[in-house]
Design a protein that fits this description.
Number of helices: 5
Largest sheet: 5 strands, parallel
Strand order of the largest sheet: 4-3-2-1-5
Order of helices and strands: EHEHHEHEHE
Helix content: 25-40%
Length: 120
């Protein structure tokens, strides 16, 4: 059995390198055939909204919207319930394919067998 990858990204435009690293690792894992779950928390919550990833720019980094599209195509993207609520983001606001879920779901994913969790 292959391991799954759970990536929790807490950074957004406030820490662009850390944010880009999380999306890059998740998208490379997806491209490698790994089952990936990307969690958007903290300032990265804004990337659950249409067009927000396209506004992100970091020199020498792949466009965030391309990375997010790749992850959405073959992996799962979840927006933290509390993070969404603090930003007044609801289910009708997010990009198609992004789900909103809370800590219990995150813990369940993180503690599943054969999961590697990374936090950025």
């Amino acid at each position: 059995m292959t391991r799954s990858l759970l990536v929790k990204v807490t950074a957004g435009a406030d820490a662009p390198e850390r944010c880009s690293q999380a999306f890059t690792v998740a998208s490379v894992a997806v491209a490698s055939g790994v089952d990936v779950s990307l969690w958007l928390t903290g300032e990265s919550a804004w990337f659950a909204l249409p067009g927000r990833a396209a506004e992100f720019s970091l020199p020498e980094a792949a466009p965030l919207n391309d990375l997010l599209d790749a992850i959405l195509t073959a992996g799962r993207v979840t927006l933290c319930t509390q993070c969404a609520a603090r930003r007044s983001i609801g289910p009708d606001d997010v990009i198609p394919g992004v789900r909103i879920a809370g800590a219990a779901v995150f813990v369940s994913e993180a503690l599943a067998d054969d999961v590697q969790a990374l936090v950025y």
